[in-house]
Amino acid sequence: MDQIRIHGRGGQGVVTASELIAMAAFYEGKQTQAFPHFGVERTGAPIRAYTRISNNPILTRERVYNPTILLIQDHTLITEDPEITAGVDKNTFIIINAPKDYKLEKKLPSKKIYYSPATEIALQIFKKNIVNTVILGALARQTGLISLESLKKAIHEKFKSKGTEIINKNIKAVTLAYKK
Questions:
Q1: How many CB atoms lie within 10 A of CB 42?
Q2: pLDDT tens for residues 102-146?
Q3: Domains of the chain with CATH codes
Q4: d(Cα 155, Cα 23) in Å, to the nearest integer?
Q5: pLDDT range class, residue 155, cuts 50, 70, 90
Q6: Fewest CB within a 10 Å sphere: which of 12, 84, 89, 108?
C-alpha cells in the first residue's frame, strides 16, 4: 500500500490535492482513501492531508504515520514544523515545492528527494500560489503512482462545476509540472 502525506498551508489546496490523487488512482482501478487533518482552519496555517492507494481493500482509517510518499507544498514548513519528517525513512519519496536556488538546510532521512518549481508554475498560470495540481504533475512523473491521463480525468471531474477555464488552467499546470 502506498501512503501519502501532504503538508502545506491553508489556501494551497492541500485537501484537494489529496482528493485528486485518490480520484486518479481510483480511475486506474485501485482502492483509495483520502482525508484531511488540520487544526485552526485559516489561510496560511499548516494543513495536512492523507491519501492511501492499494490494490487491496484499505482497512485502516488512521492518519499516515509512515508515508511512502511525502508531498511538501511549501518548503518553509521543513524548518517550521518539526513533525514534517516524522515517520520518514531512506525509502520515502519526497517531493518539495521549492525555488530553483533552494538549498535544503535541514537533513532529511530520505535518499529520494525531488524539487518541483510548483509555485513558479502556479504564479505563471493562476497568478497566485495555489500549487496543489501543479505538484501532482511532479508526483505523477517522478513516482509513476498515477498516470497523467488519470490525473487530468480527476481534474475534469473535480472542477467541472467551476467551468472550462479553470479546468484548462489546471490541466496546463499539471502537464507543465509533469514535463519539468
A1: 11
A2: 888 778 888 899 999 999 999 999 999 899 999 999 999 999 999
A3: 2-99+107-179 (3.40.920.10)
A4: 9
A5: very high
A6: 89
